[in-house]
Each structure stands twice: as C-alpha cells, then as structure tokens.
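Hey, resending since the last one bounced:
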Amino acid sequence: MTRVFAYCRVSTADQTIDNQIQEMAAAGFTVQKGRSITETVSGSVPAMQRKGFLALLNKLEASDLLIVTKLDRLGRNAMDVLASVDRLASMDVRVHCLALGGTDLTSSAGRLIMTVIAAMAEFERSLLVERTQSGLARAKSQGKTLGRPQSLGEAEKKAVVARLAKGEAVAALAREFGTSRQSIMRIRQSVQ
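The structure tokens again:
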C-alpha cells in the first residue's frame, strides 16, 4: 500500500508552512502524523545537506509517494532538484508536485517538465542577478552613492572628530547629533 509523505520547507523563521499543508489537503492528500517533514532552511542549501530532507529519506520506502507544493521546495537550482528526484526515483518513490498539476516528477513526462521549468527558473534568477549588477555598475559610473544615505554631513563629521579628540563620550555625541553610537564610532575609526 502506498504511504503518502509531505515535504514542506520555508526559508526563514518568520515564514510558515501552513499554506503548503492547506494546498496538500485541498488537493485531496491526507498525510498521517509523522509523515510530514517540515524544516526551515534556505533553498540554496542542497537537499542532501538538509537535516529534514535526510530524515525524510530514512523514512521513505519503495512505492511511497512524496508530495511537494512547488518545485523550489526541493531546491533552487536545476541540478539539485534533478539530483533529489533521481535519488527518490532510485528508491522507487514517486514525487508529485502540486504546482505542476500533481505531475509525477519521476515519470518521463514529469522529468521533462521538471527539467525545463527548473532550468527556466534558474535562468531567470541568473538574469535577475545580471540586471542588478549591471544597474549597480551603471549607477556607480554615474557617480551615484549606493546604500543608505549617511546620517551626518562633512561639517558634522569634522565637528564630531574635534569633540572626540577633546574626550567627549560617543553616546553623548550620538544623542546630540541624532545618530547611532555606531555611526560616531565609524567616524572615529576613519580618522585613526
């Protein structure tokens, strides 16, 4: 008899797996207690390096069914997703992705769809990084200052340096100039 397992992953502690569980239930899957593996770990961490995913592998047996809501729950790059699905297929475990219409990723058609979609997602992420880097380089070449604006102007920085030299406290200067202690300490550091 086929046992149904769920793998739910979020990237940060302030996210929740509730939507993933609801999507699985809405698709008609009932996952018994102890067969739902959840973890909080970045998708950039390869599946075979995730504690929860490794624990899942130890529970799975031939003819089991693993449900994921989206392909990116398994990994962020095509190679990792393919390696994970290959590993599961070698164990005779079927992998269903709800976002792909419940496609069995271990079937021939599922592997084709998964490969194309994973490759396109990875390509889009690469393009995004390239566009971001290009935009930052262009802004720098135009003399634009990147990052957060500095809290103190040059005249104020000189006044801070002079008063620090006289022995005034960092905290007192931070309060007076309406900035953080760290900003005052960075100014002090820049003149040493």
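The chain has a mean pLDDT of 90.

Sorry for the duplicate.
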